[in-house]
Design brief:
Layout: H1 3-20, H2 23-27, E1 72-80, E2 91-95, E3 121-125, E4 131-137, E5 142-145, E6 148-150, E7 153-159, E8 166-172, E9 196-197, E10 207-209, E11 212-213
Bound molecules: fe (ii) ion.
């Protein structure tokens, strides 16, 4: 079977998984109509090198049967327009550190170890209902500067022709580093709940429902 077919099969499986975990019934339309997702910096570690395995399952890497370190979660939601209509066919890219807080990027100065069993970045295309999903791990915190530890977060880039490309970051509610983070603090207080997400318990993995609203040019 070709990689493309395998990736498509995995994508379908994860989509169904996300639906069974409650995304379709409870998480959709959490976003407020007309309230776009806050833009945040891309940061220095956007993936610049291609890789064979770039699907939406970051805990399975082609060529290894080992699991990555860290707590497995599902991150899923809907991409919506400003009127809360689903945006189908949007490309959703995520990238993040592994459990040790290290990015697979040549410019990451962190001395922490890379995890060969983690995929580091992946992509998904929203379905007809605007739904995307990823299986990944909770990333580690990492030092950004003297006295500044970035809280666990996942970077997002969402693109669809006819809309402004959105770059943002998703955080985990309850993490004590959130309130001190110099990047998250730049998001207006009233908007922080749009990017700080409470994990919901689900089987077999907790799920973070992160809806994203795009603006038109
Ligand atoms: Fe980051």
């Amino acid at each position: 079977m070709s990689n493309i077919n395998l990736n498509r099969r995995r994508t379908l499986k994860l989509g169904i998984f996300a639906a069974s975990a409650g995304v379709a019934s409870t998480g959709i339309a959490q976003a407020v109509c007309g309230d776009k997702t806050p833009v945040q910096p891309e940061g220095p570690f956007y993936p610049i090198q291609d890789q064979v395995d770039k699907d939406n399952d970051l805990v399975r890497v082609t060529g290894t049967s080992q699991a990555p370190k860290g707590d497995v979660i599902v991150v899923a939601g809907k991409v919506l327009d400003i009127d809360c209509a689903p945006v189908a066919g949007a490309l959703v890219e995520i990238w993040q550190a592994c459990a040790s807080g290290k990015y697979n990027h040549k410019n990451d100065p962190n001395a922490a170890e890379l995890d060969p069993n983690f995929q580091y970045w992946g992509q998904a295309v929203t379905d007809k209902d605007g739904l995307y999903s990823f299986r990944t791990i909770i990333p580690g915190a990492y030092p950004a500067d003297v006295g500044w530890i970035r809280p666990p977060h996942i970077h997002f880039k969402v693109a669809k022709r006819g809309y402004l490309e959105l770059i943002t970051q998703m955080y985990f509610a309850g993490n004590e580093l959130n309130d001190k983070d110099l990047i998250l603090k730049r998001v207006k207080a009233k908007d922080r709940s749009k990017v700080v997400i409470q994990l919901k318990q689900a089987n077999p993995h907790p799920i973070a429902v992160f809806d994203i609203t795009l603006e038109k040019p």
